User: What shape does this take?
Amino acid sequence: MLRQWCGLTPNQPPEKKKKMDLKEVNKAYDATKRKRSVVPAWKAEFPWLIVDESETLFCLPCQTVYGPHAETRQQRDIFRKRSQGSFVKGCQNLKHDTLVCHQRSDGHKEAQEKYEARNKKKGESIAEKTIETLNTKVFQKLKILFINAHALAMHCRPVSDFKWMCEMDEKKGLDLGSTYRNEKSCKEFLVAIAEITRLAIEDKVKSAKFITIMSDGSTDVSATEQEIVYLHFAVDGKTHCNFLGLVQCDKPDANGIYDAIMQAVKLPGIPKEEMMKKIVGFAGDGAAVNTGKKAGVIALMRERISGDILMVQCMAHRVELAFKEAMKQASLFIKVYVLLDALYKLYRIPKQAAGLKAAFSTTNISKIWPVRVGGTRWVSHTHTALQNMLRGYRAIVLHLSQVATTRTASGMQAKAKGLLKTLRSKDAMTFAHFLSDILAVLSKLSKTLQQREVCTYHVHEALKATMTSINKFKDRAGPEQRKLQQGDCNSFEGQTLTGVDHSSGQIEKVVEALVGSLARRFSDMGGEVLKATKIADMQSWPQEHEDDFGDDFIGVIIDHYREHFDNVGVDVSAIEAEWTSLKQALYENQGNKIHSMSWPSVFELYKSTFPNILHVIDLVLSLPAATSECERGFSQMKITKSQYRNRLKATTMTMLMTIQLHSEPTKDFDPSSAIHQWNQNHNRRPNFMEGRKKGRMAALEGAKQVQEEIDGVDGVDGAQMVAEAAGGAVVEAETNEINSDDSDWFTDMEDNVDSDDGEMEDRGLVGEDEE
Assistant: This one.
């Protein structure tokens, strides 16, 4: 019945299934199967997932842990097996279950733990903390050694001082051990300290979206051209100015300086392409090699990096140049300058200095010594020299009068008479008082521009106030000049002034020349971009909310730096709307407090609400006003690289200056992170010398026992047998002593921290060498 129901005759057998070729089966399956692809949501579900252009799947922790180790070090069989895993070599099975199974696997879990341990900050990993716990005594010894090395660098001392510093600590009763007390170890300690300091700077640079390169050149004591490089940037409204490096410049032309700068800005933790995208400005002095539009350093940067990079010429130097240019209009300035220089040189002579000291005591005036008028290029130094002369005028005149009446064979009498003549000259003293008033105004501007973290937006109001103050000198005298005019105009500090006063005409010329020179040298502050930086000066914001305030400035900045904003992920289309909302929120919520607010406080309140406009503020804060920090860096260089240490290389100088300029003071220095950095990827043996000492003591003790036994044995053959047996035992004891002491630092950790084995192997704390 069943055969009939199926349509088959009673005697007809069923047809056999046709055999299909395997290739045809596969072709049929390929033609009908669903094409799989990577689902975007997988990346959020599996943070470790990496997908390349061909949609091949990789596991970041597994690839990091198993790949390099399998190729470079001998590992267990299970380790080698995992190094050949599909997510290490590349997986093309685009199924969700494949990812879930890999995530649950023991190999992935172990790799994830090791990967997280490697990426922890210095001093926070379990292995590093275990070292401190299990080896407290050794760690304390290393701390003292590192503090000594840090103190040497901070105080510009040579590493040869490290030995006697350790000896002095030992004399005080401190236990330093006998290992790592040499110059080579001191240098290694300094490298670790500098690296920790450099990594802190690198982390800040990573957080910055915009940076300006500051550079200057100088010749060191060995007549070598050195280029110093700083980075000026802002993160969350806080401005930073950090030393990057000192690079020997093979040739001080534009290409040589550019190559030196590029060498300095290579940070190991930041890719070159990412670093180049951050650069928005270059700050240097006004030398043609920097500012040349066709062949200068700025031209090379615009050609090779970005055409939008802004050139900022040091504005502190502009003040000095404007002052010198204006003083060319006054011959009395030369007269006063020569007087100040002559007084400084005169009182460098011990005999004359003693006489001036007695004159100060006679006149009851505080000792105010003449200082060098040309000590630095800054106008504040000239102002100090002039002020000291005017305040100590009575004592100086008294002493010079005594010298002028005493005959000497050295010609000092004639010098004193010449200086007295100038000091009692009416036009010279009138111009000196006027010059003191002018320099007081210029010094204030110069000191403002010399601050470490000064930005271009600070210049606008400071320059405006300076120009206003100088213009007032056309119609009215300054405070020092009025002091001279009070009472009898023909005397000063009880001394009669002689001669005709020709200073009034020269004073008018100097004021006009100074105002004009400042206007010319700061003319670029009226340019579109630098003028737009005014929006960052919250003290100059209007008292009441204005809808259109700063809109034009924001537009100028967007148009100039549009490419940079796109490169760092700033939404340009949202900037102007956020600017309007930010102004409204500040005026409504802060009211009159807005003019006293700082940008870090604004970022803290509104960073998540208005991120794009605050990135614009960070860019404005990243534009420095001066390169004075480079000058301070060269001062530190000349202190460190003296005539007694003139063979220090640029790399060593970079290491030392990084510590000197950015590390904590020695009293606040914590060497723990530097010790971990030093211990990383190296097999350290802190007890090595102690083991050798114990071995030598054991050998001496054994030799003494042998001698005693030889003395007590009759016959030559018996004595020889005793000596051979005892000598072998002594050598074995010495070897065991050295090996046991040498491995204490790592054996304890290896026995007690088995769970962190992979992490310690990666950091070089334990390994087969110690076993």
